């Protein structure tokens, strides 16, 4: 327990994996909530038209609510779209409405179409969001312009990997796209963090997926794995994060621990000594 250490500069994470249902939203929301509950200022950006992260953080996101759509398409400043989460005031959320479903196509014709989120976040962090320690961007399950905007805006990629069959399927495509973004749009982007989700310690399958991922990504994989837990999946139904819904559950404790690991690691391994 106790407060988590503040980073020396704002750390911006994109939570990405083009597979659906691997725990992107659950991870974005609960890491953000865990850090905010431990005294850090956190900005959560919901970039999925489904708005599941907004729901879990109890942020209204009916069509027409100012959110990421307006930030991307109308250049609405983030401070005019952000809402404090009612249960955790240090968690600020830019909600996603269903209007965002059209943004992928509407962005195509616009100038700076890949950099619009970056511009918005940089402007916010240089002004009203100067106190923000961590930014988490929850991506939709695709590698389209919304995810590209997030990858251009972020410095670190966090990839949740579900400990299930076909866990590694599609990862080479994801890494390939990250490589293209690094080459052409954001050379500072780094795959700093892998989080194993829906881990079931009782099954050989979970253990072998975990071992394979650790073999491939080494110390980028957090030592904490998130267990499969009914409580985690129930929380959004009550417009709660697991951190507030059941703070002593194994799910809450594991997200708290994963969050603490991230804060202790400082910046990415490639970024030697930058945060020390
Ligand atoms: P994504 O954003 O990648 O599509 P979600 O975070 O929405 O994935 O998770 C997919 C589903 O799995 C959701 O119903 C969620 O509640 C559930 N879920 C996520 N993590 C866990 C977990 N550790 N244990 C049990 N259910 C989980
Ligand atoms: Mg999601």
UniProtKB/TrEMBL annotation:
Residues 11-190 form the AAA domain. Pfam families: AAA_31. It comes from the Bacteria. Belongs to the ParA family. PANTHER family: P-LOOP CONTAINING NUCLEOSIDE TRIPHOSPHATE HYDROLASE, PARA FAMILY PROTEIN CT_582. May play a role in septum formation. This is ParA family protein. It comes from Aeromicrobium senzhongii.
């Amino acid at each position: 327990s106790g407060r988590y250490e503040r980073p020396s500069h704002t750390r911006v994470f994109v939570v990405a994996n083009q597979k659906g249902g691997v725990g992107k939203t659950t991870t974005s929301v609960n890491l953000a909530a865990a850090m905010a509950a431990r005294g850090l200022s956190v900005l959560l950006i919901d970039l999925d038209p489904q708005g599941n992260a907004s729901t879990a953080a109890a942020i209204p996101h009916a069509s027409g609510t100012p959110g990421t759509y307006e930030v991307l398409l109308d250049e609405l400043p983030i401070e005019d779209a952000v809402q404090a989460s009612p249960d955790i005031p240090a968690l600020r959320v830019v909600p996603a409405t269903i209007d965002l479903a059209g943004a992928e196509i509407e962005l195509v014709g616009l100038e700076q179409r890949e950099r619009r989120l970056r511009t918005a976040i940089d402007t916010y962090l240089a002004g009203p969001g100067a106190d923000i320690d961590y930014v988490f961007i929850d991506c939709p399950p695709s590698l389209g312009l919304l995810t590209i905007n997030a990858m251009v805006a972020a410095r670190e990629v966090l990839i949740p990997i579900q400990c299930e069959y076909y866990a590694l399927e599609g990862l080479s495509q994801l890494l390939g796209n990250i490589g293209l973004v690094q080459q052409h749009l954001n050379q500072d982007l780094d795959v700093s963090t892998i989080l194993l989700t829906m881990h079931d310690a009782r099954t050989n399958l979970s253990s072998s997926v975990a071992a394979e991922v650790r073999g491939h990504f080494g110390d980028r994989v957090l030592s904490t794995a998130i267990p499969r837990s009914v409580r985690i999946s129930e929380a959004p139904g009550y417009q709660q994060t697991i951190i507030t819904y059941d703070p002593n559950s194994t799910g809450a404790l594991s997200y708290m621990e994963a969050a603490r690991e991230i804060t202790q690691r400082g910046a990415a391994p490639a970024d030697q000594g930058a945060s020390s």
